[in-house]
Amino acid sequence: MTRVFNFSAGPAMLPTEVMEEAQAEFLDWHGTGMSIMEVSHRGKEFSVVAEEAEHDLRDLMGIPDNYKVLFLHGGASMQFSAIPLNLTQPGDTVDYFNTGVWSKKALTEAGRFANVNVVAEHTTAIPDPSTWQLSDNAKYVHYTPNETIGGLQFHFIPEVGDKPLIADMSSCILSEPLDVSRFGMIYAGAQKNIGPSGLGIVIVREDLIGHARPETPVLLDWKTQADNDSMYNTPPTYSWYMAGLVFKWLKRKGGLEAIGEVNRRKAKKLYDFIDSSDFYHNPVRPQDRSIMNVPFTLAKPELDQAFLKESDAAGLKYLKGHRLVGGMRASIYNAMPEEGVDALIAFMKDFERKYG
Ligand SMILES: *Cc1c(COP(=O)(O)O)cnc(C)c1O
């Protein structure tokens, strides 16, 4: 069996070591004679898995004690609805940055519940703070630190005064160190940098819990979830377990400082190569480029199909860009080894030599 380099944006590659570990204990978890996916979420086996995963995540990210960590269904998108339901009453105003497809989805959903003020809008550069239109009475400020489709990333935390700052970190969580105390709430779908799909992680400051609208569906109320340790109903246990293995893998790798260094090096290599070539192009302003998702186009779009076919045959999978933007995209999350990026660059060089 050969493992290929999979550049999918999500669900994405998982660390091979983690997959091997899960495989080894698939039928018999720690001598119980059962798979961890076959046992009760309230039983003693899964309780250990659940607690360790939370403990390791807190450790990795340095999550302060006054934050709850929730392991929920519904991925990131369910929080698009949960956030306004938990933090606003009808008629309230909320601030959203619009920097791409995911920002837009989040603010469109919020618009069903509250008045959305767009703070700033741009998809290939982070707008300068001097142009931001923050509202005085917003209940919170929402942004998408890493736009997975456009490849645009905030490399700083927006300064928004005393308003709770909310971040959709689906495609950048755990990719580098982060000061969690600057945020009111952080959320992420698991399938990019954490584990299999079916799981959403919510990290929320305690004072923001307990204010949901009365009509909020019970599963979307952070208080219900926090009071029940994310087990009001049956959580996605296998995804939670896999996330726990990924957290342990990250700790073995040296934590977020160490992985952040690797991630920056991987991204720099790829961007440096793209910038050195007249054949490949990335549209994002250099200081705002994503270190996780690298979109690029070919000078001759009629070669897109050949590029995809030949890269696929070379074991470089899922390089097709999102249908909304076209071109190519290489997602290089934590689990993508540096050799994967080297192999991609070597392929791109060859391809350019052949057709450029
Ligand atoms: C993938 C992604 C989402 C959607 O995640 P789901 O778990 O499918 O809801 C939302 N936001 C960002 C930034 C993403 O990358």
What does this structure look like?
Pyridoxal 5'-phosphate binds at residues 76-77, 102, 148, 168, 191, 233-234. This is Phosphoserine aminotransferase. The chain is built from 9 helices and 14 strands. It is an alpha/beta fold. The strands form 4 sheets. It has a 7-stranded mixed beta sheet. A 3-stranded antiparallel beta sheet has the order 11-12-14, covered by helices on one side. A two-stranded parallel ribbon has the order 1-13. It is globular, with a radius of gyration of 21 Å. The model has no long low-confidence stretch (mean pLDDT 97). Pyridoxal-5'-phosphate binds at residues 10, 75-77, 102, 144, 148, 168, 170-171, 189, 192.
Write the layout of secondary structure elements.
Layout: E1 5-6, H1 16-24, H2 44-61, E2 67-72, H3 77-87, E3 93-98, H4 101-110, E4 115-121, E5 141-143, E6 146-147, E7 152-153, E8 165-168, E9 185-189, E10 200-205, H5 222-227, H6 237-252, H7 255-276, E11 280-281, E12 293-298, H8 304-313, E13 316-317, E14 328-331, H9 338-355
Parallel strand pairs: 1-13, 3-4, 3-5, 5-8, 8-9
Antiparallel strand pairs: 2-10, 6-7, 9-10, 11-12, 12-14
Bound molecules: pyridoxal-5'-phosphate.
Please tell me the total number of domains: 2
Q: Kindly, what is the distance between the CA atoms of the first and last residues, rounded to a whole number of angstroms?
A: 34 Å
What is the CATH domain class of the largest domain? Alpha Beta
- How is the largest sheet built, in terms of strand order? 2-10-9-8-5-3-4
Write out the CATH superfamily name of the largest domain.
Type I PLP-dependent aspartate aminotransferase-like (Major domain)
How many beta-strand elements? Answer: 14
Over all CA atoms, what is the radius of gyration? 21 Å
- The proportion of strand residues reads 15-25%
- Can you write the helix and strand succession as a string? EHHEHEHEEEEEEEHHHEEHEEH
Q: Compute the number of helices.
A: 9
The CATH topology of the largest domain is given as: Aspartate Aminotransferase, domain 2
Assigned CATH architecture of the largest domain: 3-Layer(aba) Sandwich
Give start-end ranges of low-pLDDT stretches: none
Modified residues (N6-(pyridoxal phosphate)lysine): 192
Cofactor: pyridoxal 5'-phosphate
GO biological process, one term: pyridoxine biosynthetic process
Main location: cytoplasm
